[in-house]
Write a structure and sequence with these properties.
The protein is of the alpha/beta class. The chain is 34% helix and 22% strand. Strands 1-2-3-13-14-15-16-17 form an eight-stranded parallel β-sheet. The longest helix is centred in the first third of the chain and has 18 residues. The chain is elongated, with a radius of gyration of 24 Å.
Length: 477
């Protein structure tokens, strides 16, 4: 999953850059709505789809909403040096005012309505720690600087002790939803959510603004309330469609030392519930400036994969980094080697759900059959994507070819571990026919004249409201 930015898109040759990283291995494109204009976003969507069509690929596009991200306003000359003991005024009333170089700094959110004296505020990705010492007006707060540093324009502020309640969809998010509803996004990511109730609120907003019924929600886990206990994390995972572990802001919310434990808990919860999980922030961070990753980064990525993560996300590495294509290629190389040489939490390790339903049991049994019969690959035929989700969640040690007649679902299924997704008109045995087509085209390399596959077909009969599920053993010629 790659974040689009100046390093990977421009108005002049945007589709070429996007195609380069697609060839290198990108399956999912993240459009960060904290930056850029609607005109740029529309052009990026167009260029992504054009590149995918040329390469015959299914790819997903994510609308990442800014959420209640607290940011500074303008800073004169983009630089203001502060020292320990300095007192700053952060004022929402100045949000549209040009900064004069003083310690009265514009703020894009009215923190005076939310904070309490004594709470901590981290400025500029945690580089400057401050303490709130006064609320002088209805729009301003006064903070005391606790370490030397530099402040720059539009940099974020983290307030781990502040309770924002249910105020997680600011007006900017509402405007961005209204604009994006019909632009062809496959996922919408909700930022800084606090609870499962925030997800439910967000889903109602998506309906209000007219997103397609198939739209899926990614819950970004990055706040202290969302990680306070396993019950809260599980409620969020059940309510969302995908979980994104956003380790950047989380570090300032809960403390750096808690991130590895939270990541493991969330991954385990998502595996049990059949929810895809994404790991983000500094996955290949050194490659912003270096053509090769560090050994620690390679180990971090590999460990995440072994523990059951579906997606590794790149942020600044592909948004502003010097080596976006090399970063994607290096990440893909690590992922493929790890999958080919390690046991990646297979079905025998962990039950997928606490209470099995009919489709869950079908997919669990199919994965076990695939292992016992040592087939070349698995094929899933699906109307809703759940057959593919449940099969992937059991982590079969072989490729999954998924086929559906719904293009949006096909795009969304690329987020799943081990899945290649295709669109074909529904007909009898269309999964087997697709596999034979791919073999003829050289896109399946079996290494002999014919291969074998387990075909899992899950269809829901709306007339009688029952599932019609089958497992078939097929020879692919």
């Amino acid at each position: 999953m790659a974040t689009i930015g100046p390093a990977t898109w421009s108005e002049v040759d945007g589709d070429k850059k996007i195609e380069e990283i697609m060839k290198a291995g990108v399956d999912i494109y993240r459009l960060n709505f904290s930056h850029g204009s609607y005109e740029e976003k529309a052009a990026q969507i167009r260029d992504i789809r054009m590149a995918a069509d040329r390469l015959g690929r299914r790819v997903a596009i994510v609308q990442d909403l800014q959420g209640p991200k607290i940011r500074l306003g303008d800073v004169k000359d983009n630089s203001l040096f502060v020292k320990t003991g300095d007192e700053l005024i952060l004022d929402y009333a100045l949000k549209d005012v040009e900064h004069d170089g003083s310690f009265n700094i514009p703020l894009q959110y009215n923190l005076a309505e939310k904070v309490k004296i004594g709470e901590i505020a981290y400025i500029f990705d945690g580089k400057i720690k401050t303490e709130i010492i006064e609320i002088p007006t209805k729009t301003a707060i006064k903070v005391k600087v606790l370490n030397d540093g530099e402040i720059q324009r539009k940099k974020g502020i983290n307030l781990p002790d502040t309770d924002f309640g249910d105020d997680v969809f600011p007006q900017k998010d509402l405007d961005d939803m209204e604009w994006a509803a019909d632009k062809g996004f496959d996922f919408v990511a909700f930022s800084f959510i606090q609870s499962a109730e925030n997800i439910r609120q967000g889903k109602e907003l998506l309906k209000k603004y007219g997103y397609p019924d198939e739209i899926k929600v990614i819950a970004k886990i990055e706040t202290k309330p969302s990680t306070k206990d396993e019950e809260t994390m599980e409620d969020i995972a059940r309510t969302a469609n995908v979980i994104l572990i956003a380790r950047g802001d989380m570090a300032y919310e809960v403390g750096m030392e808690q991130i590895p434990t939270i990541q493991r808990k969330l991954t385990r919860i998502c595996r049990r519930l059949g929810r895809p999980v994404i790991v983000a922030t500094q996955t290949m961070g050194s490659m912003v400036d270096s053509p090769v990753p560090t050994r620690a980064e390679a180990d971090n990525v590999a460990t995440s994969i072994i523990r059951g993560v579906d997606v590794i996300m790149l942020s600044e590495e592909t948004a502003v980094g010097k080596y976006p294509v090399e970063t994607v290629a290096a990440l893909k190389k690590i992922i493929i080697f790890t999958q080919n040489h390690n046991v990646v939490n297979t079905a025998s390790w962990l039950p997928m759900v606490e209470r099995y339903e009919q489709p869950d049991l079908l997919c669990k049994a199919a994965v076990q059959l695939a292992e016992d019969m040592d087939v070349n690959f698995m094929i899933t035929e699906t109307q809703t994507s759940w057959t593919t989700i449940a099969t992937s969640a059991n982590r079969p040690a072989r490729r999954i070819i998924s086929v559906t007649d719904n293009p949006i679902l096909a795009n969304q299924m690329v987020i799943l571990y081990g899945v290649d997704s295709y669109v074909r008109p529904y007909e009898r045995n269309y999964g087997q026919k697709l596999a034979e087509e791919l073999k003829r085209d050289g896109r399946i390399l079996i290494g002999k004249d014919e291969g074998t596959a387990i075909v899992v077909s899950g269809r829901f009969d709306t007339a009688v409201r029952t599932y019609s599920d089958t497992i078939q053993f097929r020879t692919i010629k």
